[in-house]
Amino acid sequence: MEQEKYAIGLDIGTTKIVVMIGRKNEYGKIEILGIGKAKSLGVHRGVVNNITQTIQSIQQAVQEAENNSGKRITEVVVGIAGQHIRSLQHSDYITRPNSDEVIDETDVDRLCNQVYKLVMLPGEEIIHVLPQEYKLDGQSEIKEPVGMYGGRLEANFHVVVGQVSSIRNIGRCVKSSGLELAGITLEPLASANAVLSQEEKEAGVALIDIGGGTTDLAIFKDGIIRHTAVIPFGGNVITEDIKEGCSIIEKQAELLKIKFGSAWPGENKDNEIVSIPGLRGREPKEITLKNLSKIIHARAVEIIEQVYMEIKNYGHEDQKKKLIAGIVLTGGGSQLKHLKQLVEYITGMDTRIGYPNEHLAGDSDPEVASPVYATAVGLVMNALNRQERNFKEEKITEKGTETDQQQSQQPTNDEPETISQPRKERKSFLEKWSDRVKDFLDNAE
């Protein structure tokens, strides 16, 4: 039974829906056992706007993944993104009744739960509460307050907010597709886990995930997520512009973008021309590559400038907040020719394309390591980590009775450590939130 531990990530995107099955090999790397993908029809800018079509697409992708891998798919970890996601900074504090006792998990939980009570706009709900750093009785820059003494515990939080209805709709789609919802994760966080190295997160890095409908941004510094944003443009608006600008159909525009598109107009000679077959016996159209790249360039600049504005909002120009590792581009849109150079030109920051091979097993199919699958790989990682934690939990409850008996025979100093560790890990706020969403959906039925 041991080797059957695999987990599934479900990425509901604007252009495609991906179901990915993976497991950890003996070296702790991730092996992808199967992928299923379907064209996404009921999603606009990361938000579900047609439940029936989305359910059909999910089922189609699930079917394909099951056929590819020979595994049954029952529960999935799903990613959430979309233009309704916004984030804010907030600081809060609690006063402890007894400052002679050391701070423990319950104090930190109390502080975080207080943030969940923040009054949001109607129809919004807090998705993540991510503590940045703590302050104890005025002493600042504390990374981990547990085990310290103090009366007043303060923290700065990065709070991610989303629309309740959008979250419920995603849950409804998953449930109606006959799947269990194992958890929900913010997509920029999933992509970041798949493509960034720990060193980059420490040094400071901005991950830009250019999808079909949205561009997600996640900024890390000192190993902690500092800023997230979702910009409501992606690769689709570039295709739209090509379609309008050249008066051709969407399918042709998409092909043109992928095959001949470039974000840097200076690259093309004036005489390079592509001929596109006309519709139903009409004359073929001739399009110069220079014009094509001018259209792409204009829109790409707009997307990058919006992202750069968010990076400035985070405070990149402040010496302490500098992003030393620069920018990592991922997602399908990152494959646009010369986009890396354009990003470097506009932002003046080092840029690389991020492939989700950071944690993949060496013999993985090269297709899986494409930036297109960054989010899906991240969701599989999240699902596997969740499974491991739950597995440890079960182990602990089994061991609980044994250790009580052993305790009387021999004093073991490290025993309580091993018992409390996973319990602490498990109390991630997102998981509590996932449970809340699950209850919410169950009650809604």
UniProtKB/TrEMBL annotation:
It is a peripheral membrane protein. GO terms for cellular component: cell division site; cytoplasmic side of plasma membrane. Keywords: Cell cycle, Cell division, Cell membrane, Membrane. Residues 392-430 are annotated as: Disordered. Residues 404-421 have a biased composition (Polar residues). Residues 392-402 have a biased composition (Basic and acidic residues). GO terms for biological process: FtsZ-dependent cytokinesis. Its main location: membrane. It is found in: Cell membrane. Residues 7-195 form the SHS2 domain. SMART domains: FtsA. Pfam families: FtsA, SHS2_FTSA. Self-interacts. Interacts with FtsZ. HAMAP family: FtsA (MF_02033). Cell division protein that is involved in the assembly of the Z ring. May serve as a membrane anchor for the Z ring. Belongs to the FtsA/MreB family. This is Cell division protein FtsA. The gene is ftsA.
